[in-house]
Amino acid sequence: MAQRDIFEKCVAFKRHKVAKEFGVYPYFRPLVSSEGHRVVIDGKPRIMLGSNNYLGLTHHPEVLAAAKKALDDFGTGCTGSRMLNGTLLLHETLEEELADFIGTEAALVWSTGFMSNSGSVGTLCTRKDIIFADREDHASLIDGFILSGARLVRFRHNNVEDLERKLEANRDHPGKLIAVDGVYSMTGELAPLDQIVPLAQEYNARLLVDEAHAIGTIGEGGRGTCSHFGVTKNVDLISGTFSKSFASMGGFLGCPQAVKEYLMHHSRQLMYTASFTPSVLATVLAALRITRDQPELVAQVRENAAWMRSELEAMGYNCLSSNTAVVPIVIGPVEQMLWFNKRIFEEGIFANPVLPPAVPTNACLVRTSYMATQKRADLVEALDIFRRVGEEVGVIGPNKDAMKTHWEELAQQMAI
Ligand code: PMP
């Protein structure tokens, strides 16, 4: 094969330009201001249905005050790795309170959730091990699998029979990890932990559950999917992020103390990168305490999402089978979905368009997600937009069949 310059693919990359020419490009939109559930983009206020700020804590007065105080007490940065100069007493307090909240022996915090997943799996597993991974696991886990060099065995999404077949074929292999997301980020579906835990026990495999979208939204007082299924004590590793319900950035791994100490001294993602800033740390600690002490916030985000799901379904939308703060709206082919997203944006909703390979080609969806701080009036306004745009674009209502040819023609013109 002819030698290719490494930039050749960049010059040839045009899909985003085509989407911009057709006015449907939806990514990297700068927010001018935000009060959490309402944001200003392109000079217009929009209802935020595309955030992971599930409990709305980014603008909570106690969280803001804690962040400001940490700035005054410790300055703007830790300027070094956790291992050397970047550990504050606040890190240790956070790790203790977090372990207590999620119900693990210990917890270790990292600068992002991506690093906690890739760093922990990439360090704990080796070339001698096998990782059994759901096909829809988050990218940060997948990077961890690649880093580890372990043999990767993917099983069909949420399909426990397929998982069991694959475990059975490797029954005698000593080092095994099953890795799943507790809540799948694009569809809001839950991993069936009630069935996966017995398999992990039967086949002597360790189990990791990524609770990024589950903490604050499901389980007792928002303690996640493991708590929802009552299996916390039978899950070996529980990972999560601070970039969603905990209103900031960073990630964690809940694990046995011995695993924590090993990772502290072996994970390059922890040892060779700077610790997050003191104000981030104080934000997360304040958010954790509010979540723990005010379970009504978790109940409120669940109520908002459940109400939206039932209203959208009553309009005729397909919202799959989610039971969390994420409510997907299945639209159809890429072009129709991008157009739908463009129109709801123009009318005043910010949501997240999801393209293949994250979803099947003809079942592209718009991911909506809800917050505890949204008022019923915000949601009613959003529903009115969903009804009007859905009928206009032929996702619901009488235009459905008539619009099909239109989307086929647009697909040919765009050819993306
Ligand atoms: N796991 C899942 C399931 C996620 O959705 C995300 C972020 N989208 C992460 C891990 C990574 O978290 P962070 O944003 O803290 O890097």
Description:
The chain is an alpha/beta fold and 416 residues long. It is built from 16 helices and 14 strands. It has helices spanning 8-12, 15-21, 61-74, 89-102, 113-124, 139-148, 160-168, 193-202, 225-228, 257-266, 268-271, 278-293, 295-315, 334-347, 376-393, 404-414; strands spanning 31-34, 38-41, 44-48, 106-110, 130-134, 151-155, 176-181, 206-210, 237-241, 251-255, 326-332, 349-350, 352-354, 364-369. The strands form three sheets. Strands 4-10-9-8-7-5-6 form a seven-stranded mixed sheet, sandwiched between helices. Helix 13 packs parallel to helix 15. The longest helix is centred in the C-terminal third of the chain and has 21 residues, at 295-315. It starts with 7 loop residues before the first helix and ends with a helix. The model has no long low-confidence stretch (mean pLDDT 95). Residues 112-114, 117, 138, 140, 181, 185, 210, 212-213, 241, 243, 249, 251 line the site of 4'-deoxy-4'-aminopyridoxal-5'-phosphate.
Count of helical stretches? 16
Taking pLDDT < 50 over at least 5 consecutive residues as the criterion, the unreliable ranges are none
What is the averaged pLDDT score? 95
Strand tally: 14
The small molecules bound here are: 4'-deoxy-4'-aminopyridoxal-5'-phosphate
Helical content class = 40-55%
Beta fraction: 15-25%
How widely separated are the two ends? 26 Å
SSE order, one letter for each helix or strand = HHEEEHHEHEHEHEHEHEEHHHHEHEEEHH
Largest sheet: 7 strands, mixed
Give a concise summary:
The chain is built from 16 helices and 14 strands. By secondary structure, the protein is α/β, with parallel strands linked by helices.
